[in-house]
TrEMBL record:
Substrate binds at residue 336. Residues 11-445 form the Amine oxidase domain. FAD binds at residues 12, 31-32, 230, 421. One of its GO terms (molecular function) is monoamine oxidase activity. It holds the Pfam family Amino_oxidase. This is Amine oxidase. Belongs to the flavin monoamine oxidase family.
Length: 455
């Protein structure tokens, strides 16, 4: 019998398994996909110019010590996010404005003051400790900013924040969940920043999935079972048995689930999870968080003075960034197709999705014909993937964050739960996944009455 079995080979599951192994426990990992990495997925380009990041991509060297430790440990190379140049705000399909990156778009003076007020309010709230109040949890983010006196154009900006950060509309998440997310991520401004103060500072030259592949080697590839979706989990008090759809049965003293809480209801868990746990996890949703990556032979937007950053009220693209890796001759724009616009876009057939992306990029970049000359194109709809069902981290139903805080993410019998959604820091990021993986292994060690080793 093993000490622990881990379900899911994303960053949190791999870290949990590696930490447990480092502490002397015997481990196995079962993964439904045919690869490790979960929502971190780096796909090689046919042009041999690096890879397309279909999932998480950005890190910070000074604010995210766990992921940076792996960068150094594995000798991985990174590139800083390009900031130089002009940004674009698309107010409607045929209206756009240009502005220096890092400052407010072309709003009126009254709107700029209102935007600064709303921004500063969230920054101040996000630097406080603990959970927001139940009152704030029982109103949507849209309702919350209305009470703050938000102006119409600024309300649209708040909605973009919700779309880009969580794949939802501001009407679909609670204000408390939004604020708590910011509190776990060093403040609202750190989440939004693309420089050294924020979460979008650096990317990998050879793909973020490199970390997952290297951690898997440290665990031992013979202990990781790919293409093995779980069929049932039976907790027999003295041990726990996991059976996969392909008939593999593994018994261990403990089980760590590294699966989004939104998907717990799809597992045959016996005995069933407690009613409160089922209520809160059944209520979580994963946002419409999609990517469209357009690769070119040259970074033509740079010669036009643009840095590749744009935001849009009209969609379907909600935000875009330059994601070039010059060392690989890789030149690309990555657009996020999130929230309600992404929901509608994802229903289109592949050729229509591509056409919609290129059409909007043409509007954003003043009809430059180079838009329509990509050398490669990728898009990724996480809602369509059976073992993901959306991204980034599951979002609570309105009112559930505070009501079920005492049970959410807590161990149940021999089951322990990890995932970036549970992290006290950098929730929704790779760093958060690694953090909660460490914590899950520590919980198992304590429950097995072993002295935790330094991990």
């Amino acid at each position: 019998m093993l000490d622990v079995i881990v379900i899911g080979a994303g960053f949190s599951g791999l870290q949990a398994a590696y930490s447990a192994k480092q502490a002397g426990l015997s481990v196995a990992v079962v993964e439904a996909r045919d690869r490790v990495g979960g929502k971190i997925w780096s796909v090689p380009l046919a042009s041999d110019r690096g890879c397309a990041e279909l999932g998480g991509a950005w890190i910070n060297d000074s604010l995210q010590p766990r992921v940076w430790n792996y960068v150094q440990k594995f000798g991985l190379k990174v590139v800083k996010q390009r900031l130089e140049g002009t940004a674009v705000m698309q107010e409607s399909e045929n209206e756009r404005s240009e502005f220096p990156f890092g400052v407010a778009p072309e709003f009126s003076s009254e709107e700029k003051e209102n935007l600064a007020f709303i921004r500063d309010h969230f920054q101040a709230e996000s630097l406080k400790k603990g959970l927001p109040s139940a009152e704030v949890d029982n109103m949507s983010l849209a309702e919350y900013v209305q009470k703050l006196g938000v102006l119409p154009k600024v309300a649209k900006m708040v909605n973009i924040w919700s779309q880009v950060m969580h794949g939802l509309e501001a009407t679909e998440e609670s204000a408390a969940w939004f604020i708590d997310y910011c509190r776990r991520n060093k403040g609202f401004m750190a989440i939004r920043a693309d420089d050294s103060t924020g979460g979008q500072y650096m990317r990998f030259q050879d793909g973020a999935q490199s970390i997952a592949k290297e951690i898997a080697k440290l665990i031992g590839l013979n202990s990781i079972y790919l293409s093995s979706p779980v069929d049932s989990i039976i907790d027999s008090k003295s041990h726990i048995t996991v059976t996969t759809r392909n008939g593999k049965m593994i018994t261990a003293r403990k089980c760590i689930m590294s699966v989004p809480s939104t998907m717990y209801k799809e597992f045959n868990i016996s005995p069933p999870l407690p009613a409160d746990v089922q209520t809160v996890t059944n209520g979580t949703v994963l946002g419409d968080y999609n990517k469209a990556i357009v690769c070119y032979d040259k970074p033509w937007w740079r010669t036009e003075g643009f840095n590749g950053y744009f935001a849009s009220y009209s969609g379907p693209l909600t935000l875009g960034r330059d994601t070039c890796v010059e060392e690989k001759n890789h030149y690309s724009l990555t657009a996020f197709v999130n929230g309600k616009p992404g929901r509608e876009w994802s229903k289109l057939p592949p050729h229509a999705r591509r056409a919609a992306v290129l059409k909007q990029l043409s509007k954003v970049f003043k009809g430059n014909p180079e838009v329509f000359r990509p050398i490669e194109y990728f898009d990724q709809i996480w809602q369509h993937e059976e073992f993901s069902r959306g991204a980034l981290a599951p979002v609570h139903a309105i009112g559930h964050l505070t009501k079920y805080a005492s049970v959410y993410g807590k161990p149940v019998g021999n089951l322990h739960f990890v995932g970036t959604e549970y992290s006290p820091e950098w929730k929704g990021y790779m760093e958060g996944a690694l953090c909660t993986g460490e914590q899950g292994a520590e919980q198992v060690l304590e429950s097995l009455q072993k002295i935790p080793a330094k991990i």
